[in-house]
Amino acid sequence: MLERVLNEVGDMSRRAVRSPVTFSLLFAFALAAAIVAVTGGDPLAAGGEMFTGAVTGSGLRNTLGRSVPIIGMALAVSIAFRSGIINLGGEGQMVIGGLAGTIVAIYVPGPGYVIVPLAMLAGAVVGAVWGLLPAYGQTWLRLPILITSLLLNYVARAITGYLVRFQLLDDAVTLTSTRQVPETARMPKMPIFGGVSLSLILVIVLVALLWMVYARSVAGYESQMTGFNMRSARYGGIDVEQRTVQVMVVAGAIGGLIGTHLIIGEALRFIDGELVLAGFAWTGLLVSLLAVNRPIPIFITGMFFSALQIGGLAMQRNAGVSWRLSQVLQAVVIVAVACRLAIRRGERPSTEVSDAESAAVGEV
Amino acid sequence: MTFELELRGITKRYPGVLANDAVDLAVRPAEIHAIVGENGAGKTTLMSLLYGLFPPDEGEIFIRGERVEFSSALDAIAAGLGMVHQSFKLFPTLSVAENVVFRQEPRRRGLIDRSAGVARVSDLADRYGLAVDPEAAVEDLPVGVLQRVEILKALYRDAQVLILDEPTAVLTPQERDQLFEVIRRLREAGRTIIFITHKLGEVMAISDRVTVLRNGRAVADLVTAETDPAEITLHMTGRAVDLDRRAPEHQPDQAVLEVENLTVLGGHGRAVVKDASFQVRSGEIVGIAGVAGNGQSELIEALCGLTEADTGAVTLSGTDITMADVAGRRAAGLAYIPEDRYGVGTIRQASVSENLLIGHHREETVQRRGWFDRGAVARLTRRLVEVFDIKAGSVAGPVSTLSGGNLQKVVVAREMEHGTPLLIAEQPTRGLDIGAIEFVHSQLIRYRDQGGAVLMVSAELSEILALSTRILVMFEGSIVATLDPRTVDEPEIGLYMTGAHLEAAVA
After folding, report:
1. Neighboring chain B residues of A229 at a CB cutoff of 8 Å
2. B304 touches chain A (CB under 8 A)
3. Which of A196, B178, B286, B416 is 20–30 Å from A130 (CA)?
4. How many C-beta atoms surround the C-beta of residue B228 within 10 A?
5. Burial class (CB in 10 A: 0-12, 13-18, 19+), B123
6. From CA A75, how far away is CA A85, in angstroms rounded?
7. A217 at interface of B, judged by CB pairs closer than 8 A
8. B87-91, B242-246, B267-271, B394-398, range with the lowest pLDDT
9. What local confidence, expressed as pLDDT, does residue A327 receive?
10. DSSP strand E in B252-406: where?
11. Alpha carbon of B440 to those of B95, B300, B347, B411, B429: distances in Å?
12. Span A184-195, average pLDDT
């Protein structure tokens, strides 16, 4: 078991050197450095601030903290992508699940060790239901998940907005917000690096669990095969519709967990519209694409993106370079990876032995 | 003497595979030189190296005595080579002439001279008997004509050596004869033709010399007039193959599959399978003959649960499976070798091992409570690879690196492993070479002899005649005849396949 993990890690590091991601990172950093230099800054100093700001002191704590929603939402979207389902509803699943978890945390009395898990469970269940809607829309009514899941994000925002405004409003503050989550119902912090949310453990467990599921389980195999080729999967007796529903339930549940964590572990109040501002669902989507939907690379990539964002803020504070530069970095990495992948796809056929199509490239 | 084209010691290695191993090839001017070999023997790799698509690891290429090195197909074209690929590289919306002159358009005052292009293309076409309308849009043309357009492209670029990669695979018999006529005219005009194929009949019919590849090596260089198919086969496979084997007598037993009045509606509510009723009994192979597109595929998909039938009943081993889904039908005792082994039968991105597992992945032997027993999966994979002699670099490697024959072995091995009462085999040998065809046939016969019921669809009449216990002929969605292979011949089946018997009955 351990040996296999080590093998996998070794194999991955070998591939990493040659991977388009490595190239893209180098390219992105070079470009960012050039931008800083051209605008009269000191690229080395800015880079240094970014690095130290992301991995030292409170920076490390913030990086670890922010990685939770990024990695979590990336995992949620990755399992859908692996089955060939384009689930763009992560945001809605996160928001509506998050509110459900918040309601439990605020209004259900009891000790923390009961309420916190109960709140997470509530978030997961409601997120799952929100994932179920587009899944049934596709399997029963042939409505594409791509469209319905995206549009349901706005419905989720509207519902939570209504509830917060008219049912759960805390009159004591000027925010459009629920009451604060009581002390006892908050996600505990671990006494490391100055207090990192316990949710990080949850995310690590999720990564390990998903890795196991795809490496070992029938469900993971069926999902992956369906994502590769739906016709073959159906031919092999896989119930593609049933898998679609299951995948959307799990994806929605993870979204709901992350939404709940963001309130009872971070914000402590559900402020209307606040959850979507940071764009975790979309950052997660990019992370998943970059990591080709694999759990362990998602963990690494998500951590990196988190460091980039936290480091960007530190760079702005200490080197006077706008934090938006880290957004530029993110964007360049993604574009460069996309380009490299496209180029590779073009090269590939000519290196395959028996492919009769091999002659396709280089034709006049 | 000076060869038109000579390859010396060409070697190309891929990870785990020696695709070409010190291949020598000598082609004389104005000859038709056939290159034969089983799938995976290295024919396509050799031609890709010759055409400059990628460089050989070792070896030299000479054209008319001069050593050449190509870094791209453009170099090869400049040196007078022309290649006609298996799949055509044409712009569907452009005309024939536009496709032919593309990138070398005749110009007048710097602008493309369309009428000169049309004139030159029509000139070339006339000279070599390539009947093509230069102004027709390519998307409207049948496959046989598209191939002529590809040949025109090469001739327009003044190719002295024309490489045709399995050119007859997509042609009807009539189109094939026309192609051979064109090839002979090209030879008379002094051009050299390299003809890649694995069909021995074509080698004998058209070629002057033949080079045989086996496992990446050139094992024989023969003069066609001095050899025969048996000798070539021996070189190709390394053993003698019985080319025309009739199935041994076998007494069919009770019905395994019963189909009653099955009707399947296609687009626009048109019946693509009409009121089909038949049985398949254990210990027999029922062959369905028919011209492609007469409802065979739809019938099989309906039987397997991939599409819904509209009316009728299907019973498998006594269980009514009319409403069952694929998994339910498989559980009731059906395995299926699909027609499309690339798009359905295998999953390109998955490994050999994962592909062998499709349909077995829920069996008690390989999993417990949803978690795979990795050892059991590995044993299953290893056994199938060994028993069916699947040549794969690694079972963990992607299935897409396998040759067509080995890919089909993956499908056949996996489906036969189910050991179900009924096996449906759709075009089980299409595109395979002799060795692989022989293998698949022997497996189907073994299945039958062990008491299995086999329903086979094939476009190859010789295959239908050789294997079937009974023959059903489909025409426009209906089963129009049930024939006994011992008493019919190909022309008679052909009459039913084309509906000619109906006209005869009316008259």
Report:
1. 343-344, 347-349
2. yes
3. A196
4. 12
5. exposed
6. 14
7. yes
8. B242-246
9. 83
10. 255-265, 271-281, 285-289, 311-316, 319-320, 334-337, 367-368, 371-372
11. 42, 19, 20, 11, 7
12. 88
CA distance B69 to B241: 39
Given pLDDT bands bounded at 50, 70 and 90, which one contains residue A328? Answer: confident
Q: What number is the average pLDDT over the span B71-98?
A: 88
Q: Which residues, in sequence order, are bridge partners of residue B34?
A: B195, B210
Using one digit for the tens of pLDDT, what is the confidence trace for B383-440? 999 988 888 888 888 898 888 888 889 999 999 999 899 999 998 987 777 778 888 8
Q: What share of chain B is helix, strand, coil (3-state, %, to 5)?
A: 35, 25, 35
First to last CA, chain B: 64
Strand partners, B83: B163
pLDDT digits (tens, 9 = 90+) for B297-326: 899 999 999 888 889 999 999 899 998 999
Phi, psi dihedral angles at B164 (to 5 degrees): -110, 115
pLDDT of residue B35: 93
Mutate to test the interface with A, among B18, B48, B90 (most CBs of A within 10 A): B48
- Select the residue of A216, A225, A239 nearest B325 (Cβ to Cβ): A239
Are A221 and B165 within 8 A, CB to CB? no
CA distance B16 to chain A (A): 11
pLDDT recorded at residue B507: 47
CA-nearest of B41, B86, B39, B43 to B409 is: B39
